[in-house]
Amino acid sequence: MAKPATNFQRKRALVIGINDYYYFNPLEYCVRDAQDFSKTLQDIGFEVTPVFNCNLKEFTQVLKVFLDRTRSTDLVLFYFAGHGKSYKYDNYLLLANYNPSQSKNESKNMAEGIISIESIMKQMAHKNWCATIFIFDCCRKHLNSLEENNQQRFLSMKGTPKTLIAYSNCAGAVIRSETGNDKNGYLMGNLLKHIIKTNVEIQDILRDVAQDLRKQTSELKRLYHNSEFNQKIFLVTTEDQDPIVKPMNASCVMNTPRGLPGADQPVGKNKELERSTNVDANGDRTPKRTEEHIVSPRLAEKDKSVAAGSQVSNARSQEALSSSLSIDHVPDQVRTLNSYPSETFGVEEHISKEIRDLFQHLKYELPIMNKRGPMSGNCVSETDQMENFLKQNFGFNNTNDYIVSGVRSFQIRRFLSDVDSRQIIYFPREHQSAFTMTVSEIKKWQSSYAVYADQNVRGMDKAFLQKALRGKSGDGDEAFRMKFVVRISDCPILMKFDARILRRSLGEQWPHLIKLVSVTGVDFAGRKHDVNDVTTYIKNWQEVFELDPKTGKPAVFHGRDFYPVRHHPQAMLDEERLLRDLARMVRLRLQACDQEGVEIVVETGIGLGVFAGKHIGIDGQVRRLSAIAIRHVVQNYSTTFKNIRAIVLALPIFTGIRDGRRLPDTYDYFVAEFRMSQYSGHIPVLIIDQDMHELTVAIGLRGYRVSQLNPADSHGVFGEYWQNHGPAVEEKLALTTVGLLVQHHLINPAVLDENRYHII
After folding, report:
1. What are the φ and ψ backbone dihedral angles of 527, each rounded to 5 degrees?
2. pLDDT (average), residues 172-179
3. CA end-to-end span of the chain, whole Å?
4. Which residue ranges form the domains of the chain, and what is each CATH number?
5. What are the tens digits of pLDDT across the range 191-246?
6. Which residues does 303 contact at the CB level (< 8 Å), separation at least 6?
């Protein structure tokens, strides 16, 4: 029986995959390769730290923590999938922030986003492990730079003692395609087949991989390896059940915040799904709340854990948040396999296996959200793409008129009513990877448009709604009225927030299962249109903002903005009023979803980004109250909903780190509230650090009628600022869905049809 000659006690791996390069052509299969390799290594007894799409700073910090956690008795494997290159006499790995300039002076480009392989090897050599294996899976595609092809290949490498190096190179020009099977890169596709072999020495495995690689690529792509091992190394033996080797779960990666979901959880089935999370961060039980607690005038006296202005609530929230945010000094933006935080609540015995399985799928099996993709900031090309799509298919062109100040109007010369229903439309253009739809389908989505409004709001009638949905609502009272209006329609997603087109063939039904819910959140950004948000909910607004001496209201600058006084006092929220109104808004939109047959509701933080009032110091309070409002409605009204079976809160974490602790984000406020409240509602809730589109499509593909939230501007025009290339969610919804076709009044006549308005 073959046995490893080297007496290592653990097998550890650092696995890097980079698809998304900020400044030049991305790759397609590196992240998938890293994910699949991580899982395979875990299956054969490795403790794996997978990291995706990291920049140089993040990689350096991850590497340091990884090195600190190793022992001299370890076997260590380092795998990198991404761009690589040679320069002068060394080989380099390119991290996500590498920026090749348009000049050929490469020494100017070497300061950032690039690291030499030699420097990595030197850091690892100091650890003196039993054995070290390096696999560099590069040379996948041409860099599209001014460099010569031979600079985009690796020079010959030689390792230190007890080291094996394997690296891919191409003969001549870099190979045109990364993959032969549309799943993995050429090297990884073969490595996955061979590395699991039992009682086969690692060098023999690599020889088999190299042979298959040459055959598949007609000798264009080759694997080179050399070994400084003085003994044979077997990664898998028939005795690998030795208890000394204990694989680490993929979710137990170094950058998962302690106390947050994802830490110390198995990749497979999660026993925590068998019960709700009814304990706060300190293990304390809290009394259940009743409906009257949120509607009573003496809210603060009856329920200190919910009440506006309650010191107990603030203290416990901070305690729960504090315990959730401890982190191992690793950047939060370095996302790793299955490590995106998530937490479930209310998953009791009565919850069906279908919903349990759905939550499992959403928690562990989706790609990590790309938070630095093109849709995270300036998205000129995506806007141009949508304009070209509208122009080619519907005769779109801008006009010199404006719907509201700063929002250009446009014309559509070819309306759907005049087009043959059988005509096929492609987004963004006719291509095998396009999203394909028929005119008949678009008309069906348009005809699903409906409006739900709160009948208890003064001045709410159908005439007002029609006025507002044309962008004609006035500042102040009318804009405030729109907070209590929900617009909803079928609305397929065309591409995810990473700007990758969702390929759809005719006949696929998942696009028909998605509803877009457009609502207006409370806006504390300080805009003229939403002046009532300031004067209604901020008690001392006269002391906080510059005032107009004529009107006594906040002074307007640049035609739209309010400015805080330089040394203003702390803004004082009317928490009881805000909480009550937020709860009304939540209940209204859930009622609308329920009446439209929605089974799974996907929500995101409404007005909780720049709109939460960070500039006047109230953002934490607004987030906390928003969490309380949602928790209260779901807990106390869940039995009134006939169709809603689960709620998913998509709350991506974007905050950075200070003093070794991640700063609180909306995600943390919601988790803390559901923990503290001992949530026991009839409807299960999943809170997750994930892309809203990713979640919605995954749910639709499983056959559920699903809704997703669009935090829209209070003017009432869908995608109001969609052509300004900005980062707001509403603009992104206009560029990534058919929302402009189904919810914009200039395209869909159903938007202004009063028969579709329901005042409830």
Report:
1. -115, 145
2. 57
3. 76
4. 10-100+109-143+152-240 (3.40.50.1460), 342-759 (no CATH)
5. 998 999 888 889 889 888 888 887 776 655 667 766 667 678 888 886 543 322 22
6. 289, 293, 294
